[in-house]
Amino acid sequence: MLTNTTKRKRKIFWFPIIIVILIILSYIFYYKNTYNKRQITTNIVFPVTRGDFEVTILEGGSIEAKESLQIKSEVQGETKILSIVEEGYYVTPEDVQAGKILVELDAKKLLDQQTEQELSFQRAKASLANAEEQHEIQKNQNEIDIRQNELAVKFARMDIEKYLGITTTNDILKKIGVDEGSIQKLALLEKENKMNEEELNRIKNIEEKNNNDNNEGNNKSDEITSTPETEENSARMLISSITSEGIDFRKYADSALLGDGVAQQTLQKYTTDVILAEEDVKLSQKKLEGTRRLFEKAFVTQTDLETDELTLKRKQVALEQANTNKSLFIQYEFPKQAERLVAEYIEAVWKYIRIQKLAKSRLAQTEANLNSAKAQFALESRKKRELDEQIQKCKIRATKPGLVVYGGEEDRFMQERIQEGTSVRERQIIITIPDTSVMQVRSKVHESNIKRVKPGQKVRIRVDAFPEESLTGTVDKVAVLPNAQNRWLNPDLKVYDTFIIIDGKYPWLKPGMTAQVEIRVAELKNVLYVPLQSIFNVDNQQVCYVQKGNEVEMRMVKTGEFNESFIEIKEGLNENEKVLLYTPGQSIQARPKEKKES
Q1: Which class does domain 45-53+526-592 fall in?
Q2: pTM score above 0.70
């Protein structure tokens, strides 16, 4: 057992430990409360304010003249600047009257081109002589072409005779009016390029006599009478002769009408195939009848009988195939081949009839080449004159008084700096002389605000060089497409050029000065508004943190218009409530306010 002395010693030992534990707990409780109170009292808050609210857009910009005279290089290609007046020089009316040289471009390349142009001139002269020689050669070539077409007509007729025979060929060609007599008549008319009444009547009589049985000549004469007296219609009559006369080539697929030609041989082959197939069928039928009798007496098997029956069917199919081949030849292959050969013959006749005009056309072509060579010669002469003008344009003279500014405003950062020795291209702006009577600000508005900016809106302008001066202006126009230069430098940033006309005239305004513009897009009356930094996005919803004594309450809000500093509150806050300007710490007890049911 423990003695009283031992018990007393243990109580003395635990007493200091209990005191220390109580002191530590009291310190933690005190520090926590003090920290929360200090956190609340140090929160930066802003009271919800009611009043008039002006919606503006603040952007930067640069001063420039609304209208400017742009002096561009009119020299083709690229050339260097030999000399140029210094930027900022003021061109006086006296300079304009005296024709002061503002820019002098390098003309050495143009002078070298002038030497080369002389060589081109000599080549054009040689081409002209060659064209004259070709014109003479074409005259001889025409005679050769006429002879070749005569042979083509002859060979095309021989092809028809080879296929149809001479008698059938003469009969068909006579009916369609392309026999040798008709060809000579038409060739003569083509050569003379006219049809007189006597020739028309003679052709009518010939056609009526040759086609009296089936009245084909009447149709032919009607066609000739109704057509104009031109070589074009006489040729058209030949080409359409087959269809207009309605010739049926299938009636000539007869051994009695065909001569000893390819068509006759082919027809005889198909006829022979039919005859042989018929004989095969008869033999197979007789053999099958004998096999059936033997089968009835059991001298042959069932297989032998079926084999003979199958043989007969094959022979019958072969007979049908032979008849079909013959029928197809008569119905399709023969008339197709005959009509094709006749069409080729008519085409050869057409070429023969037209050869004289074609020869004349070819001769006219050489004449055209000759004229072209003459035109080329004139062109080279014109180029020489243009080179002289280009050399004169290397010296750009003053035409209007004003302040000299290098380059153009839009492409100033996209090209090499204008100075002596710089290369400039054709149509590139070298000097801009602005008209300072009307000045404007070119500002770049971000795509998020461009819908709110419209022409006619009032603008407050402040020039960086003169911050004490306050200017006003009006939005003149807004670009339809994003700024190309900025889109090239930063594809993710889309800004639109906005032009603001400055009210009044100020002699101290200079092009290129930096300015700040505040575009007034709307003016709201008696609305609630808070700073922009008091609005936060939580779960894709806009919220504010409202201070309620020592606590912070998260409140969902509905916003409206905004400017660079404040934003309109449509729902969720009341006037004079205090909102935090930043997200409260984790130690602040924040609880979302429940939505009231409407």
Answers
A1: mainly beta
A2: no
